[in-house]
UniProtKB/TrEMBL annotation:
Keywords: GTP-binding, mRNA capping, mRNA processing, Nucleotide-binding, Nucleotidyltransferase, Nucleus, Transferase. Heterodimer. The mRNA-capping enzyme is composed of two separate chains alpha and beta, respectively a mRNA guanylyltransferase and an mRNA 5'-triphosphate monophosphatase. It comes from Cudoniella acicularis. The active site is at K66. Its EC number is 2.7.7.50. Residues 44-239 form the mRNA capping enzyme adenylation domain. Its main location: nucleus. InterPro entries: mRNA_cap_enzyme_adenylation, mRNA_cap_enzyme_alpha, mRNA_cap_enzyme_C, mRNA_Capping_Enz/RNA_Phosphat, NA-bd_OB-fold. Gene3D superfamilies: DNA ligase/mRNA capping enzyme (3.30.470.30), Nucleic acid-binding proteins (2.40.50.140). It is found in: Nucleus. This is mRNA-capping enzyme subunit alpha.
Length: 440
């Protein structure tokens, strides 16, 4: 391993590439995904609105915490010398190459070999250790491509099962066998803990308070959905009231003043903008397709807030700014989002506004969890009945030969079902991604 050590700034997790090299890598990933577009290929959630409570009752969803980190795709590949290389791809579609020999993802049963043509979805966070030290960690919540084979048309539980067996288990064994290398790794990798969607109270009471990194809500992802580029209506982002926000492009409009006698004596004879005065803070959305960003609203600033922004001594105009709506329905400044190139799309703004106006509270989610649980178990029972009926049909078709179609030749399957039922009854909320998969 290299002596470079762990990444210290998650916003800049490596060396950013550019020019022809960047175009080549974007084209390579697009070809791997069978896409014509070279844009960021990751899925994007929609904001949680009241109608989504019904969605959680109708479909199987997993829930996990929404980390306050940086979203990155992790691309595992090789260079022209057949050496292991990794890239992190941010939402601006910038590619950050990881320092050589600071990460290794072995294949099963061969610690020296490594994965290529693999695209993983996750986020980079900074965990605070009990010692007070900060540890970078990449939390995985999906896998799009595995060793050149697409997983995007598989369901979420299957995608996670493939990732766990082919990548995560060999990686965990590497850490166990070579613990002395951990301090030199660029970051550690973990699978993000997924729970059944009805484990909501457990999330609020047990999971969120004990996280070693920041958190700003919950993410619900449909268990049976395929992976989708861009906005995905089956990924639901719930935020507490104080965290529900929109990213706008900030366009400052300063008051124009007439030159006074001192200005005229200094040769200034025409009206000019007063850059010290409190400006009108126009908020623009993103409409895509090369069109001009449309105006949406204005951001309210107190005089002391404006003084604080000026004191940054940074360019303010034309930056992406994250805003929240206060109790008087005014947009207020939260922070700048320099990790983003564009403001939220008009459709995203509409989704967030719906979420704000039709707000679902923490208590609303908790109140709904028993119905969500009952509906989940009802669907599971119906599915089990269908499978039992299908097995019986096969048994009859085979002439009732003992051991054919009744599960006798696959006792592990029955045991697995029993473990899953026991797990659910104990209320631990953990998903069962299914048995190991041997063939893609």
């Amino acid at each position: 391993m290299s002596t470079t050590g762990p990444v210290s700034i998650i916003e800049a997790p490596g060396e950013r590439i550019g020019g022809e090299y960047l175009h080549h890598m974007r084209s390579q990933v697009a070809q791997l995904l069978d896409r014509k577009q070279l844009s960021f290929p990751g899925a994007q959630p929609v904001s949680f609105a009241r109608r989504h409570l019904e969605e959680l009752k109708k479909q199987d969803y997993y829930v996990c915490e929404k980390s306050d980190g940086m979203r990155f795709l992790l691309y595992l590949t090789s260079n022209e010398y057949n050496e292991e290389v990794q890239f992190l791809i941010d939402r601006k579609n910038d590619y950050w190459i990881i320092p050589p020999n600071t990460l290794h993802f072995p294949v099963p049963k061969d610690v020296k070999s490594f994965h290529i043509n693999t695209l993983i979805d996750g986020e980079l966070v900074m965990d605070k250790l009990p010692s007070g030290q900060m540890q970078p960690k990449y939390l995985v919540f999906d896998c799009m491509i595995l060793d050149g084979n697409t997983l995007m048309n598989r369901t979420l539980d299957k995608r996670l099962a493939y990732f766990k067996e082919r990548i995560y288990e060999p990686y965990k064994k590497l850490l166990a066998d070579f613990p002395e290398e951990i301090p030199f790794m660029h970051f550690l990798m973990e699978m993000k803990a997924m729970q059944f969607s009805y484990a909501i109270e457990m999330m609020f009471n047990n999971v969120l308070p004990n996280l070693p990194h920041g958190n700003d809500g919950l993410i619900f992802t449909c268990r049976t959905s395929e992976y989708k580029h861009g906005t995905d209506q089956n990924i639901l982002k719930w935020k507490p009231e104080a965290e529900n926000s929109i990213d706008f492009r900030l366009s400052l409009e300063f008051p124009v003043v007439q030159p006074d006698q001192q200005d005229i004596s200094e040769g200034i004879t025409k009206p000019y903008p007063d850059y010290e005065a409190l400006p009108v803070c126009n908020l623009l959305m993103y409409s895509g397709d090369g069109r001009e960003d449309p105006w949406y609203s204005t951001m309210f600033l107190e005089s002391d807030e404006w003084d604080s922004l000026k004191a940054l001594n940074e360019p303010l105009n034309d930056r992406i700014v994250e805003c929240f709506m206060d109790t008087q329905k005014r947009w207020r400044y939260m922070r700048f989002r320099d990790d983003k190139t564009n403001a939220n799309h008009t459709s995203t703004v509409e989704s967030v506004i719906e979420s704000i106006m039709d707000r679902v509270t923490k208590q609303d989610l908790i109140n709904a969890q028993m119905v969500i649980r009952d509906e989940w178990k009802r669907r599971a029972a119906e599915q089990q009945a269908r499978e039992k009926k299908e097995i019986e049909k096969k048994r009859v078709a085979s002439g009732g030969i003992p051991g054919l179609g009744n599960g006798a030749l696959n006792p592990s399957a029955a045991a697995g079902q029993g473990q899953k039922r026991k797990s659910e009854e104990q209320g631990n909320g953990r998903p069962s991604p299914g048995p190991p998969v041997k063939e893609l």
